[in-house]
């Protein structure tokens, strides 16, 4: 019986499996999406998401913990260029996302062996899915009542004072059409005199 055994061995020994997941994770970080089988994509999701969380945490922690997180990521990825990309570009892009950094999209079956294929991608780097969604504003929520401050109250009063001034400008605007209509009358009088 295999009760409680959650690791998918993917038909490989442990060293081969770890090397394969490290290579796939580096490719995912570099290219932002890769095509693979569904089983490998699910295994990769479990492998790479904790590393992305560690890269995010570096910005909020001290230098010692940031170095520690980089060393753990390097132990798993085994590629310093992928670690650098992860901690610079990817961590900035996913900074406000609370998990769920990757998406698996099933593509159908492979022609050669009929294996279920999938595309795994980093969610924040897909412009097509994120185009229609407005960016969330990072506002602080408060449960207190909405009292206006003195500065806001004075701005409201100044806006009310300026409105009557705008009404005084209206007679000047009305005077301009009258001035324009006078030349038309003069043109009509000249036409009458010619007859």
Automatic annotation (TrEMBL):
InterPro entries linked to this entry: Ribosomal_bL17 (IPR000456), Ribosomal_bL17_CS (IPR047859), Ribosomal_bL17_sf (IPR036373)
The species this protein was found in: Maribacter litopenaei
Sorted UniProt keywords: Ribonucleoprotein, Ribosomal protein
Ranges of biased composition (kind: Basic residues): 133-146
Subunit structure of this chain's protein: Part of the 50S ribosomal subunit. Contacts protein L32.
Biased composition (Basic and acidic residues): 154-165, 173-195
Keyword Cell inner membrane: no
Protein name: Large ribosomal subunit protein bL17
Gene Ontology CC terms: ribosome
Recorded name of the encoding gene: rplQ
Entry similarity comment: Belongs to the bacterial ribosomal protein bL17 family.
Source taxon at top rank: Bacteria
HAMAP family: Ribosomal_bL17 (MF_01368)
Region Disordered, annotated ranges: 133-195
């Amino acid at each position: 019986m295999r009760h409680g055994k959650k690791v998918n061995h993917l038909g490989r020994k442990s060293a081969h499996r770890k090397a394969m997941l490290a290579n796939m994770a580096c490719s995912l970080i570099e290219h932002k999406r890769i095509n693979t089988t569904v089983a490998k994509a699910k295994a990769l999701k479990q492998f790479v998401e904790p590393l992305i969380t560690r890269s995010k945490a570096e910005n909020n922690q001290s230098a010692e913990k940031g170095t520690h997180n980089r060393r753990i990521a390097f132990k798993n990825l085994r590629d310093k260029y992928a670690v650098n990309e992860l901690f610079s570009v990817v961590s900035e892009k996913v900074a406000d996302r609370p998990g769920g950094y990757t998406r698996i999209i099933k593509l159908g079956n492979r022609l050669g062996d009929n294996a279920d294929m999938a595309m795994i991608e980093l969610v924040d780097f897909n412009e097509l899915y994120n185009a229609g969604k407005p960016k969330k504003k990072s506002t602080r929520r408060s449960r207190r009542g909405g009292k206006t401050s003195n500065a806001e109250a004075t701005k409201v009063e100044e806006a009310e004072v300026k409105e009557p001034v705008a009404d005084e400008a209206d007679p000047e605007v009305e005077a301009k059409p009258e001035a324009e209509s006078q030349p038309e009358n003069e043109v009509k009088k000249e036409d009458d005199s010619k007859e």
